[in-house]
Each structure stands twice: as C-alpha cells, then as structure tokens.
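In the design runs reported in the main text, the only information available to the sequence generator was the tokenized backbone. The following block is the verbatim input for one such run; it is reproduced so that readers can re-run the procedure and compare outputs position by position.
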C-alpha cells in the first residue's frame, strides 16, 4: 500500500508486477475502489506492471470536501504516473475512469499508447440527473441510492448471487463526499469535442445490460475516435470486469498483443 501527496488530496495507489513490465493503468468507476479490478488481474498475462489508484474521495485515498472538478481527477492520475515514471501505458478506464482516460489522453498523450474505454462515454447523463443524485446523497447518504445503483451495475442473473452483497458494501462504504464530489465532476464533463481529436488505438467495451452507459452510448463515443474497436459483453451490466471477468480479460489480453504491449 502506497500513498502520494497530490496537494489537496493524498492518493492511495498500488503497483504489482515487475518494474520493467509493460505498464497497464486501471481507473475505476464512481462508488468503487481499486478492488474493482481484482476479478480480472489473475487472468491477465504474467509480467505486466499493473498500476491502480483510488480516486480522491474513494477507497483509502483522502476525502476532500465535495465538489471535485474533472481536471483535478485527471491531474491526480497525471501526477501519479509522472511520480512512477510511467510512459506509453495501456490505460484501462471504466465509467468515470474512462472519462479520466479521455481527458488524460488529450492532455498528456506521452503517457498513454492505447486505451480501453469500458462502459463509459464522452458525456454521461446530464446535470439534472447528477444534481438529483448529489441531493439524495446529501439527504440520505449513499445507502439511499444503493438499490438503484445495483440495478445499473449488474444484470438480473448477478442479482441472484451472494457476491452482490459484497459489491453493494463496497459502494455504501465509500465516503458521501467522495461520491458527491465525483458526481459533480461527471456532471461538468462533456468531452465530445476533445475526444473527437484523439488519435490512438482504442478499444471500447460495453455491457449488454448496462443501465448507466448503454451499448449505443459507448459505441457513439468509440466512433468519435477513428479506427477504434468495439466489443459487447453479454450477460453483464455496468461492471463487466466483475460479471464476466474471463471474457473481459481475454479481450484485454488480445488488445495488449495488438498494441504491442506484450
Ligand atoms: O450510474 C452509476 O451509478 C454508475 C456510474 C456512472 C458513472 C460512473 O463512474 O459510474
């Protein structure tokens, strides 16, 4: 477990694998921490340098008062990668993590050779939707949103498994300010124009039962980047790395090969 000082926040991060391994950076979604990636990591090729961090307000990172700006979330990641002297990584971002991927690629293409945009978009929802969520968290805490979030995160089948409770616990144990702060960052983000200017190998992944970023929305964002690929994972909601880890890891491993990381 490691920590670095990002000025107004202290960021918890973790690096696994050999220092000389191809760097693969994972950015998780709203209401999750770096454990989101645990199901797929053992399924990836050996020898990768795996870098993960907890967004400000999530996991073991500190919790500055809400709201947060998307620029601050991108800057945290930029500083972490500079601190670790990472260049030319494969960046895998899910949902808000995919927004961070897009913003970082626009700002610092030297850091990213290729990216995976999982269950994300150039713009997610609208300000009214996010204002309502922030108000709900202010009044009733994350618990008041948890059932609705589970419906968006997971397919009907997954709702019948005991594992659902663990992911629900991950959500409700995040800090209210962290959740509201990142919701404000998403609300203020529209990357359609900057993402349209990106030119790097990109793989978009969608879940057939995703209630937050449905497949058509993910595909629309992928289509902004010439040459990008799109992969639909069936029997999965917003978190296919949790529901269908074998398929997610296989598609990611193929992309690592295609982009020359392994
Ligand atoms: O809708 C949700 O709760 C899921 C989600 C939207 C943005 C994000 O990062 O997660």
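Verbatim output:
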């Amino acid at each position: 477990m490691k920590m670095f000082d990002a000025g107004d926040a202290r960021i918890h991060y973790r690096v696994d694998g050999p220092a000389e391994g191809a760097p693969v950076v994972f950015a998780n979604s709203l209401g999750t921490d770096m454990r989101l990636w645990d199901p797929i990591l053992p399924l990836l090729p050996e020898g990768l340098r795996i870098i993960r961090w907890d967004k400000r307000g999530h996991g073991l990172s500190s919790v500055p008062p809400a709201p947060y700006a998307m620029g601050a979330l991108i800057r945290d990641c930029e500083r972490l990668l500079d601190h670790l002297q990472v260049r030319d990584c494969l960046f895998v971002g899910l949902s808000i993590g995919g927004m961070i991927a897009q913003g970082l690629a626009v700002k610092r293409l030297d850091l990213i050779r290729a990216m995976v945009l999982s269950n994300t978009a150039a713009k997610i929802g609208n300000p009214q939707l996010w204002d309502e969520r922030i108000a709900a968290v202010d009044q009733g805490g994350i618990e008041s949103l948890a059932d609705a979030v589970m419906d968006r995160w997971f397919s009907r089948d997954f709702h019948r498994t005991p594992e659902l409770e663990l992911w629900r616990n991950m959500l409700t144990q995040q800090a209210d300010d962290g959740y509201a702060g990142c919701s404000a960052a998403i609300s203020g983000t529209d990357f359609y124009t900057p993402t349209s200017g990106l030119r790097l190998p990109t793989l978009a992944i969608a879940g057939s039962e995703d209630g937050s970023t449905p497949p058509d929305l993910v595909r629309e964002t992928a289509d902004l980047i010439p040459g990008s690929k799109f992969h639909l994972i069936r029997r999965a909601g917003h978190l296919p790395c949790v529901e269908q880890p074998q398929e997610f890891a296989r598609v990611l491993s193929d992309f690592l090969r295609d982009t020359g990381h392994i």
